[in-house]
Amino acid sequence: MSNTRLNSIIRAFESGKPAFAAFSKLDKQTAIEMSDAPYDGIVYEMEHNPYDVAALGDALQYMLNRKKIAETGSVAPGVTPLARIPANGAEMNQSFAKQVLDRGVYGVIWPHVATVEQAYNAVASCRYARPKNASLYEPKGVRGDGPANASRYWGLSMDEYYKKADVWPLAPEGELLVGLMCESTQAIENLDDILKNVPGIGFILIGEGDLSQELGFPRQYEHPEVVDAMRRIVDTCHKHKVVVGNPHVTGKNHRRLQEEGYRFLMSAPQRSYGVVGLGREMAGY
């Protein structure tokens, strides 16, 4: 078990491949459906949707597939669950990360992170405390110790969980991803300093919606000023060899985004309406 990579998103990154993901609602049937979807990971959306850790715990349980575990001989989930939490970086929150990690998610996405201090807090909130003389001490861990539910969900003993519950790529064996959303001009100005001074960031996710709002072109993702701002983010991430992601991947832009170097690709979940959809298409709707 000790040498098995549990996090499918990290597995893709380590293989030099992009990871594909989607936002997901917090309900049981969606969790079942997403557990068999062709994604490396899903992100339970708890920033704009209600923050409900009880529902998150239920959703994670409904993602479990005993048949797959038996067939593969591994407790690694086929689709890795992450959670986007409500608190903006400026709120310097730690409790939301602790709560979702204790339910068992494999990573946390933090919205509106714009400074070195905010980025440091985000990574520290996902790490347990350790002695000052320990290797990889910084960012100093502040996650409270309550791993029982998470270790059970991961299918590990508590000791095994402690060894894997650290942030990648800072800890090479870590299975947790810290994703920071870069979605403001302040964040872009500080991104070089953030990536230079805060180890343990798993990826940067562009927040095109909020960024385009601030630039004065709401959701006009092809506007030259928005495109240029996004290019600056991508270039800075590439400079520091940090994965950069895009939350608005479509059938029209996925090839271009991959060519531009995005490696965490989020698309809207595909919805098929079967016979109704075919019938309406034939009827000329």
Which short descriptors sum up this protein?
alpha/beta; 13 helices
End-to-end Cα distance: 53 Å
* Total count of helical runs of at least 4 residues: 13
Mean pLDDT: 94
Chain oligomer state: single chain
Helix-and-strand structural type: alpha/beta
Strand coverage percent: 5-15%
Major sheet details: 8 strands, parallel, barrel
Report low-confidence residues grouped into runs of 5 or more: none
**Could you state the order of secondary-structure elements as H and E?**
HEHEHHEHEHHHEHEHHEHEH
What would you report as the Rg, rounded to the nearest angstrom? Answer: 19 Å
Tally of DSSP β-strands? 8
How would the global form be characterised?
globular
- The proportion of residues forming helix, as a percent range, comes to 40-55%
Q: Please state how the strands of the largest beta sheet are arranged side by side.
A: 1-2-3-4-5-6-7-8
Write the topology of this structure:
Elements: H1 8-14, E1 19-24, H2 28-35, E2 41-45, H3 53-63, H4 66-72, E3 80-84, H5 95-103, E4 107-110, H6 116-124, H7 148-154, H8 158-164, E5 177-182, H9 185-197, E6 203-206, H10 208-215, H11 224-239, E7 243-249, H12 254-259, E8 264-267, H13 274-282
Parallel strand pairs: 1-2, 1-8, 2-3, 3-4, 4-5, 5-6, 6-7, 7-8
